[in-house]
């Protein structure tokens, strides 16, 4: 029951973010609004000290997804977890 | 054992140009003669052509010229990525056709084709030092013309106080633009007095060749007394204005990158010292000089501006 409740809270957060920011508002844009320098430092760190392909192949797709999708994914995770623990979810 | 003293004109065998390259050059010269007979033909066919340029000896670099390979394979160009190895990716940026709009507070706004600029501007070669804010440096023989010569063409109004340089933003070839949260296009700027200084150079070539895309081709600005990020690359628009522009980096990290960004070894970057610089292509570190060593030409621009953040 607890896990399912958390999942519903995340779904609610996703809907709220979608309406508040717009359904196409990207996660990276939201992070940039909070702290522009941090996102830039992250990019420099990954591209220069790990590998450019990691940034382009993993971080960019993640950061360009709509911001509402992140809580939705969390919600789905909790929903799946609750269904795997019958009677205790 | 006889001692043989080489004559002045002798060079080591390893430096002799291979025969195949000489033959290729003869073919190229033949093609060049054809181009002289039909000016603009090569440009019309899409192959950038750089006119011959005399070296301006007023500006002495005082150091060896950086190897071309080093200068053209270690590049900052965020539209292609924040790492240094963007030279291959940058080749996707078409260099022709290319125009530069010069507009804003001018009497005669114009749009210049890059090949028209190459034909009409006073082209020359200047060997400038470039000091990156990241504490490395290089020395490059740039080909170009003074920014003031370009501005004369559009007749700036007396009310114009700043010059803004806008870099091309081409999402189809610039993967960095996928990061839409950055304030694209890349904007840089300077005062009208700085723009009028003879050192302010519109660069269209390097090492006697058209300026490579990764270095800002086909046309960029270089003001060698400032940190390198002030030099906007692949410029498509120059705007004269009475409002001080907020540049790309100033918008992202204003504590670290300001409007003036003049080189000063005494003023550290918030995260590292600016007292010395690594010479690109070596592990040698040399002391950084005030105004990157160009103080005699530009220090007077900043009289009475002590309250400004001139060094960041």
What is the secondary structure topology, with strand pairs?
The complex is a heterodimer of chains A (89) and B (312).
Chain A (H helix, E strand, L loop, with lengths): L1 H20 L5 H8 L1 H14 L2 H12 L5 H16 L5
Chain B lengths: L18 H19 L3 H4 L9 E2 L12 H6 L13 H4 L8 E6 L5 E4 H7 L3 E8 L4 E11 H8 L7 E6 L19 E5 H5 L4 E6 L2 E2 L9 E3 L12 E7 L6 H5 L23 E4 L5 E3 L7 H4 L14
Parallel strand pairs in B: 1-4, 2-11, 5-12
Antiparallel strand pairs in B: 2-3, 4-5, 5-8, 6-7, 6-11, 8-9, 8-10, 12-13
Describe what you observe in this structure.
- The complex is a heterodimer of chains A (89) and B (312).
- With 89 residues, chain A is mainly alpha-helical.
- Helix content of chain A is 79%, strand content 0%.
- Chain A has helices at residues 2-21, 27-34, 36-49, 52-63, 69-84.
- Chain B is an alpha+beta fold and 312 residues long.
- Helices cover 20% and strands 21% of the residues of chain B.
- Chain B has helices at residues 19-37, 41-44, 68-73, 87-90, 114-120, 147-154, 192-196, 248-252, 295-298, and strands spanning 54-55, 99-104, 110-113, 124-131, 136-146, 162-167, 187-191, 201-206, 209-210, 220-222, 235-241, 276-279, 285-287.
- In chain B, the strands form 2 sheets. In chain B, strands 1, 4, 5, 8, 9, 10, 12 and 13 form an 8-stranded mixed sheet that branches. In chain B, strands 3-2-11-6-7 form a 5-stranded mixed sheet.
- In chain B, 38% of the residues are buried.
- Chain A binds chain B through residues 26, 28-29, 31-33, 36-37, 39-40, 43-44, 47-48, 52, 55-56, 60, 63-64, and chain B through 81-85, 175, 178-182, 251-253, 255-256.
Q: Summed up, what is this model?
A:
The complex is a heterodimer of chains A (89) and B (312). With 89 residues, chain A is mainly α.
Could you estimate the helical fraction of the residues of chain A in percent?
A: over 70%
How far from one another are the termini of chain B? 63 Å
How many distinct folded domains of chain B? 1
| Helix content class of chain B | 10-25%
Task: Please tally the β strands of chain B and state the result.
Answer: 13
CATH superfamily of chain B: Oxidoreductase, molybdopterin-binding domain
Transmembrane segments (chain A): 58-81
Keywords (chain A): Membrane, Transmembrane, Transmembrane helix
Keywords (chain B): Metal-binding, Molybdenum, Oxidoreductase, Signal
GO molecular function (chain B): metal ion binding; molybdopterin cofactor binding; oxidoreductase activity, acting on a sulfur group of donors, quinone or similar compound as acceptor
